[in-house]
Structure formats: C-alpha cells, structure tokens
Write a structure and sequence with these properties.
The protein is mainly β and 96 residues long. The chain has a domain of 62 residues. It has a five-stranded antiparallel beta sheet. Strands 4-5 form a two-stranded antiparallel ribbon. The termini are far apart.
Amino acid sequence: MPRRNKPHRGRPVELGAATGWARTESGSDGEWLVRTVPGSQATKIYRCPGCDQEIPAGVAHVVAWPADETGSVADRRHWHRACWQARERRRPTRKR
C-alpha cells in the first residue's frame, strides 16, 4: 500500500528567511506557536529557558514564540521537548 501524506495540523508561519509549519498551543501562559525541530536540522547550540541547560547541535527540540501579532523572530525560544511540556509546573529560570 502506498504511503499517504498527512496534512499539517498547524499553519504556515514566516520564520525570518524561511517559512515553516507551526501548531498553536494554549496554556495558562497564553497562546504559542510551536514548531518541532528534528535533530537533523538542529545545527546550532541553544540554551533552554526551562532548565537553563544547553541544547546541543543534533538534538531534536521545539521552538516556541507568542502567537499574537507582536511576536517576532526575537521572541523565539528553543526548548527541550520535556521542558516545554513541563512549563506549567516549572517556570523559566535565569541562573546565569
């Protein structure tokens, strides 16, 4: 049986020079656009705001930014997937 492509459940968004797909997520902290970054496309090191630890290159993670019109490229944050899912229980820290 041939493989069927599933439709995206998100919406296309402008991400600087590239366009990608993001889904909308709601929480007590507001509406967010969230995009999953596969390990093969993670080419830089980022610092997760949830645990204040590095996300090494090559590690799959999520990028989240406010869903309102004021959200910009500068508002994007790269999170470990588990930290993003636990953000309701654990607020971002700044230890540096």
